Amino acid sequence: MTPERDSRPSAFRWPVRVYYEDTDAGGIVYYANYLKFMERARTEWLRAMGVDVNEWALRTGQGFVVRSAHLNFIKPGYLGDELLVSVEPTVQKKASVTVFQRVSNGSEALCEGEIRLAFVELKTMRPRALPEFMI
Amino acid sequence: MTPERDSRPSAFRWPVRVYYEDTDAGGIVYYANYLKFMERARTEWLRAMGVDVNEWALRTGQGFVVRSAHLNFIKPGYLGDELLVSVEPTVQKKASVTVFQRVSNGSEALCEGEIRLAFVELKTMRPRALPEFMI
Amino acid sequence: MTPERDSRPSAFRWPVRVYYEDTDAGGIVYYANYLKFMERARTEWLRAMGVDVNEWALRTGQGFVVRSAHLNFIKPGYLGDELLVSVEPTVQKKASVTVFQRVSNGSEALCEGEIRLAFVELKTMRPRALPEFMI
Amino acid sequence: MTPERDSRPSAFRWPVRVYYEDTDAGGIVYYANYLKFMERARTEWLRAMGVDVNEWALRTGQGFVVRSAHLNFIKPGYLGDELLVSVEPTVQKKASVTVFQRVSNGSEALCEGEIRLAFVELKTMRPRALPEFMI
Question: Which domains does chain C have, with CATH numbers?
Fold first, then answer.
């Protein structure tokens, strides 16, 4: 996970403001909340491709589930920060996609993660081939 | 909402420990989290009456929804505090029940609330008569 | 809390998208999260008046704390909804202000609340006169 | 991360009940909340060693920060589940410790993670040698 990784102009980015709800008594963004920020950005990344995750799930019974998340916490985020969360697909398989995500404050990376998403039949959790819009 | 209100031995009480996840950058328990603590206590209060909320909903399609919450924030809670959350029914109607709840640290009340719960058909949100175990 | 209350053009409004993090197993927005949405809107309302809550607290040692919240839960919100959260001051006293807030989906009110904010010395929690920008 | 890993009797375990607040509209435990559960267990693991994290931080200005988290999401958790969260130190260095954590429902692992904790001077975030009680 190198700093160059999402510097490509192609990486999708989504802004997130840090409110009290996101922080903890250490005065910083609570570590689990980076996973919330990353999911917001992934949802908006799919929406930017014309896909409403919820509508898709209701219509097809299929959707993404997170299989793994490898997170590095690099620097703390603070109340009031306006962060950017990137999404960049790195590995694509038949029924899953891995995305690299970075939460940054200006030029500083606060948290980086590799998130593996499996595409599944939501009722049975059985793997399904990635939909067209992902390929 | 007077201090005497849940001093009755009959009031159900449930312990809640304050972790980092519950606090904010002000160094205190984040205000919305008292609603989480109160719901935990209500769930355990029903469990103590022999009712598993989730199993009940799946079996009967009926359950409680919160209609209103009147909260007073009296004193802050802090990281590491071991709090007690009480539940005490105050008003019972045909299809709803109001409970008084207090979150305390020892003898000090931190947050008090009156929560009105309607009993409904979960799919339609139509009111239903309170189940036997509530009467 | 009538529907007309924040229909005034003067009411501040802030958009909030509903993500998975905001919902619960009932398939709807978890009730405590309306307090999060309301705080986001209050923060942005103050920012629109030129006040950064966090910077203000650090510089002056003073800030708002929530003293009470009276919430009515009217209709459920759902995953993917784009909500609007209004802020409208209703009662102003020497050291506190009450705001009426509504979370709506289009023309439908989902949750309404009256939130009383006290202005305090943050270390001692002693009341302080409202700052100029609030008057 | 094999199933045998925390089957050792020595592994610390902490129970966590799944409430509405922990679930999402998919009907399952929201993925970020496993990090909350893991932190609760780590806090109680330290408390079982006689260390109150908060009191320690206030007294010494030192404490743990999470540097990385590698999580595998294996099976979903559901509303009402009573889970067990284990903590087992795996790698110990001069200024950091890695713990393996598993969230299980009975004999089924739901989520496993390796969490690297650095011991730091909290103001400067500079590494400090692990305290005696960790060695």
Answer: 12-134 (3.10.129.10)
